[in-house]
Amino acid sequence: MEDIFIGVDFGGTRIKLGLVFEGKIIADANIEAASALTFEQRLTDIGLEMNHLLSQGSYNLTGLGFAFPGIVNFNTGRILSKYVKYPGAENIDLNNWAEANFGVRIAVENDARAALVGEWKHGAGAGSTDLVLVTLGTGVGTGVLVNGAPLRGKNFVGGNLGGHSTINFEGSICNCGNIGCVESESSTWALTKIARASPEFSTSKLAALDIIDFKNLFELAETGDNLALTLQDRCLKVWSLCVINLIHAYDPQKVIFGGGIMKSSHIILPYIKQMLDKHSWIGSDDVDLVVAAQPEHAGILGVYELLKQKNY
């Protein structure tokens, strides 16, 4: 029997599962986030999906890992923050759940920090000791590696709140309660509201869309749509200033970028490099800007590595 690990990455719309054998994903699956269900109900479905994956071979399950989009106490495996897509997650003892249902240990980590570790050990950050990871999309997630160790801090938010740093002190209140966050100025959830507030909205092709995401924003910008071009530039500027702040704070060897929007990396990375050279104390010659090498499975590979580090 092969010793196997199962990692679960909880996304905003999908939950990804992966079977890991000796550091490689050998099978995967995904299910809907289904935010109408409680986290406890979702765990039942996740357990069924895990058993389905395990039934496809002769496997000996040795451990589990959850990459979760919230504040997580890595030491105890408890989720500390409420998250609207997974109601009640903060009330579940995942150590007991893993032991009761599968008889194994579990590692639970913030999803961006887990993805950072996955990229460090199996992707674009291999061989580095100081890294910043930024994921762009529905929100803006960040993770930080300092001197070869994931940054966590006293309250387990260390390195994770780059998307909730203030970028516009005269901006609107973010859904986190802070003022003018990177997310409230440049993420998918804020984009439609920002577009509709523009006087150009009625004459833009963006007006025909129910929800504006980065895919259609960048596509319409490419066709020359004026508002799409304006909003694209706004987002690029906000992301660049966020990256500059992260570089000033953590002085990494590399900044790794993830998220589906990195299909437009040929637009995004040159813009950020230009902004770095213009506004940062550390220019683009001294920090590498790279696209994530494990965009689908970094979180799963990250919790796989983190389980090895846990003390039991």
Structural notes for this entry:
This protein is α/β, with parallel strands linked by helices. The protein folds into two domains: 129 residues, Nucleotidyltransferase, domain 5, CATH 3.30.420; 165 residues, ATPase, nucleotide binding domain (Nucleotidyltransferase, domain 5, 2-Layer Sandwich), CATH 3.30.420. Helices cover 36% and strands 22% of the residues. The chain contains nine helices and twelve strands. The chain has a five-stranded mixed sheet with strand order 3-2-1-4-7, sandwiched between helices. Strand 11, helix 8 and strand 12 form a beta-alpha-beta unit. Helix 3 packs across helix 9. The longest helix has 25 residues. It is globular. The two termini are 24 Å apart. The mean pLDDT is 95. Pfam families: ROK. GO terms for molecular function: kinase activity. Keywords: Kinase, Transferase. This is Glucokinase. Belongs to the ROK (NagC/XylR) family.
Rg from Cα: 20 Å
DSSP helical segment count: 9
What's the oligomerization state? single chain
User: How would the global form be characterised?
Assistant: globular
Order of helices and strands: EEEHEEEHEHEEEHHHHEHEH
- Percent of residues in helices: 25-40%
Protein name: Glucokinase
Family: Belongs to the ROK (NagC/XylR) family.
GO molecular function, one term: kinase activity
Pfam families: ROK
